[in-house]
Amino acid sequence: MQRKVVVEEFKQRYLNQPYGDVWLKLRPLAYQTHPYRWATIGKEISHIEQATLDDVKEFFFHYYIPNNAIMVVAGNVTVDQVKRLSEKWFGPIPAGKTLNRQLPAEPKQNGKRVLTVEADVPANALYKTYHMPGRFHPDYYAVDLMSDMLSRGQSSRFYDQLVKKRKFLIRYLPLS
How many Å apart are CA 88 and CA 92, to the nearest integer? Predict the structure, then answer.
């Protein structure tokens, strides 16, 4: 029964709306070797349909373990309260095997990759993506800020130039 719910979520998010499959098409263009080349939910419905209960359990107990988690705490609490409650609720959960993640490094992209898609959508669209440094790279915050200034929201420079001044239609996709 849950499999059908996940298949319906995949259809709703990616297949049953205009431009919904954009990220499914962009990811393999932007990434050739890194796992980012496919969405967490899968690349196609068959990935969901063919997953077994054992596959799901193995994935869960491999990744959803305390030593692979990050806890974020916000609110009017003290460090002692957080420690006490963390130990109460999470202490009994076994840590699991230490993960040794060896993600393949994405090779440097020296040329453009282009995919032209024809679809029954309200208007033509152009999507461009660029690689940026990883979160621990010294340039990460500068590039992230530049990206936000250029393209995040209605106060961005792209929005101002393309939508307000040139009257282009802009549609933002949530990062998922």
Answer: 8
By C-alpha distance, which of 39, 59, 31, 25 is closest to 134?
Answer: 31
Say if CB 103 and CB 34 are below 8 A apart.
yes
Which residues, at least 6 apart from 173, have a Cβ–Cβ distance to it below 8 Å?
19, 22, 23, 127
Q: What is the pLDDT of residues 4-43, one digit of tens each?
A: 999 999 999 999 999 899 989 999 999 999 998 988 888 8
Contacts of residue 139, defined as CB under 8 A and 6 or more positions apart, other chains included, come to 133
Residue in the structure block whose two tokens are 């990062």: 175
Where does the chain have alpha helices with state H?
2-10, 22-30, 45-49, 53-63, 79-90, 140-151, 157-158
